[in-house]
Design goal:
The complex is a heterodimer of chains A (276) and B (328). Chain A is mainly α. Helices cover 72% and strands 2% of the residues of chain A. In chain A, α11 packs antiparallel against α12. Chain B: It is found in: Cell membrane.
Chain lengths: 276, 328
């Protein structure tokens, strides 16, 4: 009886949590007649990919397709991930492998800086972007997201670097490897999974961001996906079929990546690399 | 968020001559340099700039490009804002919204965490996966779907209310026809739906963190209390809560910080920043600065006020984390 009540509550929670995602995908597969019928069906009666076809082949404005926005987003997120991963790896190595005078101050600063409300930085960063002549360019967003993702990336990556046993590097040093060699051959391969996990977080930050993309980009053909979606689908006479198809395309990579990281974080990183 | 505790320095005791030499070298600083430059230029400098801008009257984008003068107004923007009754309405909205959202997120998240701790193995896997789904969904698309669910013609909620027996619907809400009902038109209902969306997005993090905390509590304590005849309510408040107090503290502070500056969900649900009756501080600041006519100085002053409020909350958070690292 008690078991039953607990399981029932569990199912309710699962329903509440997962339903919107389910409903997004189901709606995207329904023909318009079913979407706008007065009695909603829990599953598409006649599943169709027409909304996906419409999104992927149609022009949202003359000469600009959904794929262009996707590409803009991918470009911005990709560049952010590469830059932030590289810089974070260097900083994380410094923090996890060396004792130095300002180490603790640096860590405290990382913690504090993550709490800066980014919403409060729109205006001054807009000023900086204007001054640098980067207004209405994708690099303005790459630069901004680099700053946003870096503190957390360093914070996360330092755990992964610290988890690599120092003995491995010491053994390499005894065998005559230089510091650069040790870094490249020992530390880097072992930290790579952590770097992937960190990159995914940076990717999600950049991929999802709306306010700055809304503010820094003027030309419609340079919109990132989130801006394009609020701009083209934010109207009253919303065509929910294409909107849900676009939302699904936007959401699925994030969910897949997110679930990947979750598993990575749990699994032991270098278990068994050192005995004793 | 799972990497807050520091790795123990196991090999500090056996220092080799090589490591001692490393200590004094400049390599760590060189490695840190790019990171420090980026944080300084892209986070700390703008933070200073927003304070500076709040002391000027900046109503033209050409002033930002440096083509025109910046007239100094001292605290003028602040006196304008604080003297405007509208600001106090916005502040009240923000505080009430954040308080309601933090409370609801914490209660729901904790309940789900406790539930997950009690479920069987396969059930946990299933429920936890579903909860992760809500967490992983981007704020943007999650909100778009909720907007569709509350659509005034074919939305699921509109259909549900239409499906109520007419007499019951009439007695409860004074209407039986819900098609065309503007769910987002009254500020109170708008805030209720926004709360639903934000809580849906944020309870998974609380649930998972509470579950992780519960796993670290020895189960013998709970069993002993239950054997002694304590009910679940008593067990929670007398055993679970005191043991997990630091976890709860950090979760409340983090939620407060996040819920004070909700923007994406607001922007999508409200369809922009035109409806002043539902403004909160972050939206207010943005709208003053970027809706024509632009008032960058005024917007900056509001952003500074928001930052100051969050600074107090952050101070509490940093002290908690540092204390936890010491205890660990």
């Amino acid at each position: 009886m008690k078991r039953l009540a607990l399981n029932g509550a569990g199912l309710l929670v699962a329903l509440f949590a997962a339903f919107p995602v389910y409903w997004m995908i189901v709606t995207s597969l329904k023909p318009s007649s079913e979407i706008f019928s007065s009695t909603p069906r829990p599953l598409p009666g006649e599943p169709t990919l027409e909304h996906y076809r419409q999104i992927l082949t149609g022009n949202l404005i003359p000469g600009v397709t959904f794929a262009d926005f996707f590409l803009n987003s991918a470009l911005v997120a990709g560049a952010t991930v590469l830059l932030s991963g590289l810089v974070a790896l260097l900083a994380a190595t410094a923090v996890a492998r060396f004792r130095f005078t300002l180490r603790t101050s640096f860590l405290i600063m990382l913690l504090v800086v993550q709490m800066i409300p980014l919403e409060a930085l729109v205006i001054p960063l807009f000023l900086m972007i204007q001054r640098l002549g980067l207004y209405n360019t994708l690099p303005s967003l790459i630069l901004t997201y680099l700053g946003f993702s870096l503190p957390f990336a360093v914070w996360m990556l330092r755990g992964f670097v610290a988890a690599v046993p120092k003995e491995l590097e010491e053994a390499a040093a005894i065998d005559g490897a230089s510091r650069a060699q040790t870094f490249r051959r020992i530390l880097f391969p072992l930290v790579a999974p952590g770097l992937v996990a960190t990159s995914i977080f940076s990717f999600i930050t950049a991929w999802n961001e709306l306010i700055f993309a809304l503010t820094f980009i003027n030309d419609q053909d340079r919109y990132t996906l989130p801006v394009a979606m609020t701009f083209f689908f934010g109207r009253d006479d919303t065509a929910w079929g294409p909107v849900m198809a676009a939302s699904t395309i936007f959401t699925l990579p994030v969910i897949v990546f997110f679930l990947l990281v979750q598993r990575r974080m749990v699994s032991g990183l270098v278990a068994g690399a050192v005995k004793g | 968020m799972t990497t807050l505790t520091e790795a123990p320095e196991t090999s500090a005791a056996r220092e080799t001559p090589a490591r001692r030499r490393r200590r004094v070298d400049r390599l760590p600083y060189l490695l840190l340099l790019p990171c420090l430059v980026i944080i300084a230029v892209l986070l700390l400098w703008p933070l200073g700039q927003v304070v500076a801008m709040s002391f000027f009257r900046l109503n033209n984008v050409r002033q930002l490009r440096g083509d025109r003068e910046w007239p100094w107004v001292g605290l003028g923007n602040y006196t304008d804002i604080l003297g405007d009754p509208f600001f106090w309405t916005v502040l009240r909205n923000t505080v009430l919204f954040a308080a309601a959202n933090v409370a609801l997120t914490m209660v729901l998240g904790t309940l789900v965490g406790l539930l997950l701790n009690r479920l069987g193995k396969r059930m946990v896997a299933f429920v936890a996966s579903c909860v992760m789904l809500a967490w992983a969904t981007p704020a943007l698309t999650g909100t778009i779907v909720w907007k569709w669910i509350f659509d005034d013609t074919s939305g699921l909620v509109t259909w549900l209310f239409n499906a109520l027996p007419d007499g019951l619907s009439q007695a409860l809400f004074g209407r039986s026809e819900w098609t065309g009902y503007g769910w987002f038109n009254s500020p109170l209902l708008f805030f209720a739906i926004l709360t639903l969306v934000v809580v849906w997005h944020s309870f998974p993090f609380i649930a998972v963190s509470v579950l992780a905390g519960l796993k670290s509590v020895p189960s013998e304590l709970h069993e002993a209390a239950r054997v002694d005849g304590a009910g679940p309510w008593k067990v929670f408040w007398q055993i679970t809560f005191p043991l997990l107090r630091p976890v709860f503290g950090i979760l409340v502070v983090l939620s407060t910080i996040w819920d004070f500056k909700v923007f994406t969900q607001y922007y999508v649900l409200a369809g922009g920043t035109q409806d002043r009756s539902t403004f909160m501080l972050s939206v207010y600041s943005y709208a003053e600065a970027f809706s024509p006519p632009p008032k960058y100085g005024l917007g900056a002053a509001i952003a500074v006020i928001l930052t100051l409020i969050l600074l107090v909350v952050t101070g509490v958070y940093v002290r908690m984390v540092l204390k936890q690292e010491e205890d660990a």
